[in-house]
Amino acid sequence: MTDSALPVAPDWFRQQDMGGGLTLIVEPHVDVLMRANIWHLRGRDHDLLIDGGLGVAPLRPALPGLFAGRDTVALATHTHADHIGAIHEFEQRWVHPVEAASLATPRPGSLISDDIPAEARQRFLAAGYPPLGPALVTAVPHAGYDLRSYALQGAAPTRLIEAGETVDLGDRRFRVLHVPGHSPGSIALFEEATGTLFAGDVIYDGPLLYRGPGMDIADYISSFALLKSLPVTVVHAGHDDSFGKARLDAIIDAYLARWRAEGLVEG
Ligand SMILES: [Zn+2]
């Protein structure tokens, strides 16, 4: 397709102040399937960026109010294309060891829907996503942007983080949870003091993906049990709106029932 068919959206990112030093950053011109949440949290000793979007436009220069003059750690909850786009822009890059290699050397990726294998597109439809348009974006970040120039930029992690470790911002402390299912090295962050959970893609309030490379139902089930056991007050997930404990439990119960009906789980 010709890129001139797409409008130019110079403000590629949209940010929303969630209160308490938390900012939600989204890419509104990315197809809903790949429109991931980027979370930015101010900390006393350093700030934390949780995930990095699709990498269509550079993040850091776009939002100087968040990043200029600040020490920011970029943490990837997992290494799917829609979560690591901007991680390479930061000096500190944290990821679970199981996905270290795919952060350092991501698969190239594409914004052209025809480049996505038919079998994968069928899985997205079956999960409940609408059919993809011709491209994964409905706008371009600047005039003359060539969709075919898109490529995920890799960068080796600077710290490997595993279950039980603490992400400490000085005034806020998060326990690292290993929550595979959506991907083998998926992590979530839980703050005991407030009940805040940053979940990545192991759960969100939209169509969960559970068939595909790296996805595993048995892993999902044990990760769900861990999530259900936490005294959660709010879940900030990798996609869609944030939600509370009742919704967390309801989403989990609905998927367990669905998997039982599909014969993917015993009992
Ligand atoms: Zn994902």
TrEMBL record:
Record Pfam families: Lactamase_B
Q: Which residues form a coiled coil?
A: none
Q: Which residues form the Metallo-beta-lactamase domain?
A: 35-239
InterPro entries, A to Z: Metallo-B-lactamas, NDM-1-like, RibonucZ/Hydroxyglut_hydro
Q: Which PANTHER family match?
A: ACYL-COENZYME A THIOESTERASE MBLAC2, METALLO-BETA-LACTAMASE DOMAIN-CONTAINING
Annotated family:
Belongs to the metallo-beta-lactamase superfamily. Class-B beta-lactamase family.
Protein known as: Glyoxylase-like metal-dependent hydrolase (Beta-lactamase superfamily II)
- Please tell me the species this chain comes from: Inquilinus ginsengisoli
